[in-house]
Amino acid sequence: MIESKYSILSTIEYPSDLRKLDKGKLLQLCDELRGFIIDELSTNPGHLASSLGVVELTVALHYVFDTPNDKIVWDVGHQAYAHKILTGRKNVFCTNRKFHGISGFPNPKESEYDAFVSGHASNSISAALGISVAHQMEHNDGKVIAVIGDGALTGGLAFEGLNNVCVNPNNLLIILNDNNMSIDMPVGGMSRYLTDITTSKFYNNIRFKGYHLLKQIGLMNDNKRNKLVRMGNSIKNVASGSHNIFEGLNIRYFGQVNGHDVNQLVKVLNDIKDFEGPKVLHIKTVKGKGYGPAEHDATVWHAPGLFVRETGERIKSDKSGIARYQDVFGNTLVELAEKNERIIGITPAMPTGCSMNIMMEKMPDRVFDVGIAEGHAVTFSAGLAKEGMMPFCNIYSSFMQRAYDNIIHDVALQNLNMVLCLDRAGLVGQDGPTHHGAFDIAYLRPVPNLIIASPINEIELRNLLYTAQLPNKGAFVIRYPRGKGEGVDWKNAPFEEIETGKAVCLKEGSQVAVLTFGPLGNAAKNAIDSLPEKDREKVGLYNMRFVKPLDTELLNKIEHQYKSVITIEDGVRNGGFGSAVLEYFADGGFNIPVKRLGLPDNFVEHGTPAELYNLVGLDKEAIATEICQSLK
């Protein structure tokens, strides 16, 4: 079928095949590549809209540049599906994001064409600059290209990279993929600025020719080149009446170029690829290009799940009606904000992803989307808290890693009253190791003045959110997983304050105490229920709810009542909840065996949550096996 439906694409396994094509066939290749992506993702879900938007750019890059000798660094990486298909992974693309299949993001371990791991935004310029400088030092003439979107360009790391690009010797090409979108609509001055940038084709043609002439007569060494670039920038600014931020940094700017005209892209890339020094090519694209539903609503079609290719009808795979934890958060936040006018919502470019869009729609003046800038989101929240507001700063667990210093220096050190909501805690599934919320317990537990909690179900999440916004609670961290909850009736549950640092006994026992932190308490309960009755009565189960502070009164009781302890968490074992329990027993001189169940000391691959929890020994069957071994 692929040979008949994709007559050109079927002949391409690697970019070397692509570069043999006549330029006149590139347009048809782009159409086939776009169709292939739509066909595949309709039955095997993934990141659709962003990948459709860079089809022409991907073809042009691999057509013009000598990959993998030339390096392409993709920012975030969820737009790299066309890149993967053209670089030897077309025939296994059906395994994309599946357990033991190819990753949904670039990864050098998977292919030599993947120059750098790309799962978090804004790292492409810095990484590509490092590669380019290394090439310079090794006299390697390979080209280096960073592809970054306008959303990722709002991240602080991108600006740090830009600031350094202009002072280090390099020939880096930065391609700014400007689609006026990140996942939700972009925000901030940079977005508006990029929309207004224009340049003259006549000016650039004269500049290209002038560059080659000056190079031929020896006037383009580094020192002279920089002076001429600055002079050219000044002339251009006077002529245009505007100042370009890139050229203000002595980075050559070219654009705007239609990012869906593959032949024009090939021409421009060929024109500028040999220019010395750093340069930016600004292209305009449409997220979801070529598929009507995705063009119409790129946010929904960022990762739409299963859908009918012909009609665009999205297929609901979960018909249980059970709410997702993020929706419990979003609706509860609105309820609390209606009663507490000090509550403010903050998110770094993920209002839909974390369900803060619910409050954004009802109270737009009390929700701030700060763009892809996690550190700023935390410190901005700290400023709000310093002046008496009650910010709820919602950031995915793995993204919160980028704001670690801000948490310590700007929040904990001042002991501010605010709430840090860590969505996607634990194993998130098909997005894999760049997105798993594996480390937050371990990296936050040593920080003074933090309360760290995790709910076992939806009602407990509501009550933790309610408790956190009460006066003088300090900095309150609440972590919860991706996906649906346990199906309890949370909507009609009245708010109840949860005493800080107090656990709940779910079942008394006599021999083995199972201590859980977070929703894995439900898997532990199911594991205990599956045991023979004579074993079941020997096992106690405790929902600890807090890793900081620990319920030490309960731990003292457990040490006297039981012969051994099992701790269960969906974070790394090293330094996590189990370590906290073990440290308490060791410091108190208690001699009770503790078995810690958690994520291993390695990065966990991608797959469904069920597959991954089975892989790491945290599903019902594995927990039951550990309990039986402890009973013996």
Architecture overview:
- There is one protein chain.
- The chain is α/β, with parallel strands linked by helices and 632 residues long.
- 40% of the residues lie in helices and 14% in strands.
- The chain has 27 helices and 17 strands.
- A 7-stranded mixed beta sheet has the order 7-6-8-9-11-10-15, sandwiched between helices. The protein has a 5-stranded parallel beta sheet with strand order 1-2-3-5-4, sandwiched between helices.
- α17 (374-386) packs parallel to α19 (404-412) and α22 (520-529) packs across α27 (620-631).
- The longest helix is centred in the middle third of the chain and has 19 residues, at 222-240.
- The protein starts with a helix and ends with a helix.
- The model is unreliable at 190-201, 227-231 and 233-242 (pLDDT under 50).
Low-pLDDT stretches are 190-201, 227-231, 233-242
What's the total count of β strands? 17
Strand line-up of the largest beta sheet: 7-6-8-9-11-10-15
- Average pLDDT, to the nearest integer? 91
Helical stretch count?
27
Q: State the helical fraction.
A: 40-55%
Query: How far apart lie the N and C ends?
Result: 57 Å
Cα radius of gyration in angstroms: 27 Å
- How would you characterize the largest beta sheet? 7 strands, mixed
